[in-house]
Specification:
alpha/beta
Length: 183
């Protein structure tokens, strides 16, 4: 019981400070919404010395609010997807994100159509396409393996899915919907 008395006593004194209510209603929400403040706190308290510095993955421009930063990160692989289908698949991804509010996507593609993902505020990573790979010292498969490993580690991915040439299929939609905390 003594453990709870001291914080309560401190809070009683804090509530008497002039400007407390104003700060609680205006300043605290601004700090919560501040990307800079969140990045500083994230780097101070969530970094494991054995891992790369994690990026604070934004949920994009479609989701906001308290708790969005805790949604699982999904690496969406669009390797081999034709360039003209990328926009359509990202639109499907955005629609599913709004409907489920259950994930934060990181889009990985091998075609330079990053604007499709970044239009929604999603992080996008570009891989060099296999037919454009010219390094004789390193096979393309090894390059992809190393790069994807860095992406998974950096973004602290919870799940990943591969988008086929037909876009998001039933299985991919079910996987993304299953990540929703609102079941």
């Amino acid at each position: 019981m003594a453990d709870r008395r001291k914080p309560r006593r401190v809070m009683r004194h804090v509530r008497r400070i002039p400007g407390y209510r104003y700060a609680r209603r205006t300043v605290v929400p601004r700090i919560r919404d501040s990307v800079t403040a969140r990045a500083v706190v994230h780097r101070l308290f969530a970094v494991d010395s054995k891992q790369h510095t994690p990026l604070d993955v934004t949920p994009g421009s479609l989701l906001a609010g308290v708790g969005a930063e805790r949604l699982p990160v999904v690496v969406v692989m669009m390797v081999g997807l034709p360039t003209d289908r990328v926009r359509e698949v990202v639109d499907q991804l955005a629609e599913l994100q709004v409907l489920t509010a259950g994930f934060r996507p990181v889009v990985v593609m091998d075609t330079p159509a990053l604007a499709a993902a970044r239009g929604y505020g999603y992080p996008a990573e570009l891989l060099i396409a296999e037919d454009s790979w010219t390094d004789p010292a390193q096979p393309w498969d090894e390059y992809v393996r190393v790069t994807l490993g860095a992406i998974f580690t950096t973004y602290r991915s919870t799940a990943s899915l591969i988008v086929g040439p037909d876009g998001l299929g039933r299985t991919e939609r079910q996987l993304l919907a299953g990540l929703s905390p609102h079941r």
